[in-house]
Specification:
Elements: E1 3-5, E2 8-10, H1 21-31, E3 40-41, H2 44-50, E4 53-58, H3 69-78, E5 86-89, H4 93-105, E6 109-113, H5 119-127, E7 131-134, H6 139-153, E8 156-157, H7 164-170, H8 172-180, E9 186-190, H9 195-207, E10 212-218, H10 223-230, H11 253-262, E11 265-269, H12 271-283, H13 295-302, H14 304-307, E12 311-316, H15 323-330
Parallel strand pairs: 4-12, 5-6, 5-8, 6-7, 9-10, 9-12, 10-11
Antiparallel strand pairs: 1-2, 3-4
Helix pairs in contact: 1-7, 3-4, 3-7, 4-5, 7-9, 8-9, 9-11, 12-13, 12-15
Length: 333
């Protein structure tokens, strides 16, 4: 017999590993004490500009202005192996998530960031009490050094994607969406490593299997897309995009295993399309977004003809935009 979640029947999905849907429900129960649900809003001007019925999941309104804080709080708050301290590598939002959660639960956090990382995100990590180590030219350089240092010191390393607690935590956003508006037809979720998309797909295929879940990544940083397409791990030589939340050179093992059985489609968008979507959301939607945060809207615009007549939810996954990126976005027409 199907389990009922707030009046919606839950069915077993094709994914049978960890995290499970039960883990998502446990994360929701835990996070209630720390995070309020984020708004799911409709801006008529955005829908009109796209020619679609678009709903915006405003993860940008969370305490770190990005969705990943759900995962950081769930992991550091509930995983016993994290209590003595953690290390992570990040271009920003994963690091902010761990730093914020470390501050909430009194856990020491060290974040490795690439040189030239988004200064707003790095400053926010420091404000939350994290120790910052700059290393390398991009996320993967920082990640490799973080993994080496964590192994050498015996510190709990928190990967930005291969963590069931993180995926279960960020999946609570999709749970909020489908419980609030169960008649949606499509969910579009940005992909860097894939924790957000894999969590959203897990929830959707459990509560409403007919809902299409679409991932979106930058053309210049397409490792996750290629891994999903080819059903094999993929690495690119560069992560060539201004959208640091999408800028990974390697695919992540756990999210890819989930996406392989749960994700319906995956598209790539250009940096120009990301900037144009940032501008649309700022002018017509009255929402500040970073590049990754605008990716779902960029994908909706690219897929507008195919999605006509459908109710579409777009993840506004983060708002940590630099002044330079906002100026560039405003120059788009």
């Amino acid at each position: 017999m199907a389990q009922s979640i707030d009046g919606i029947a839950a069915r077993p999905s094709k994914w049978t590993g960890a995290p499970s849907f039960a883990d998502v429900l446990a994360a929701r129960d835990f996070l209630r004490a720390y995070l309020a649900p984020t708004p799911l809003i409709r801006r008529d001007a955005v829908s009109s500009a796209l020619g679609l019925d678009v709903w915006l999941k405003c993860e940008s309104l969370l305490p770190t202005a990005a969705f990943k804080v759900r995962g950081g709080l769930n992991l550091i708050g509930r995983d016993p192996t994290a209590k003595a301290g953690v290390m992570g590598a990040s271009t920003g939002n994963h690091g902010q998530s761990l730093a914020y959660a470390g501050g909430v639960f009194g856990v020491p956090v060290t974040i490795f960031v690439p040189k030239g990382a988004n200064p707003l995100k790095v400053a926010a990590m420091r404000v939350s009490g994290a120790t910052i180590v700059e290393h390398g030219d991009d996320y993967d350089d920082a990640r490799e050094e973080c993994e080496r240092r964590a192994a050498a010191t015996g510190t709990r390393y928190v990967h930005s994607g291969n963590e069931p607690y993180l995926i279960a935590g960020v999946a609570t956003a999709a749970l909020e969406v489908l419980l609030e508006k169960p008649d949606l037809d499509v969910l579009i979720v940005p992909v860097g490593g894939g924790s957000g998309a894999s969590g959203a797909a897990l929830v959707a295929k459990t509560l409403r299997p007919e809902v299409a879940v679409i991932g979106v990544q930058a053309e210049g940083a397409s490792a996750a897309y290629r891994a999903w397409r080819d059903h094999a791990p993929r690495t690119t030589e560069r992560a060539d995009t201004f959208a640091e939340g999408l800028a990974t050179r390697t695919s992540f093992e756990l999210p890819q295993r989930m996406l392989a059985v749960l994700l319906d489609d995956f598209v790539l968008v250009s940096d120009d399309e990301l900037y144009a979507a940032m501008r649309l959301l700022l002018i017509e939607g009255h929402l500040v977004t970073e590049g990754a945060g605008a990716a779902a809207v960029a994908a909706a615009r690219r897929l507008a003809e195919r999605l006509a007549g459908k109710r579409v939810a777009c993840w506004v996954s983060g708002a940590n935009a630099t002044a330079d990126s906002l100026r560039h976005a405003m120059d788009q027409r």
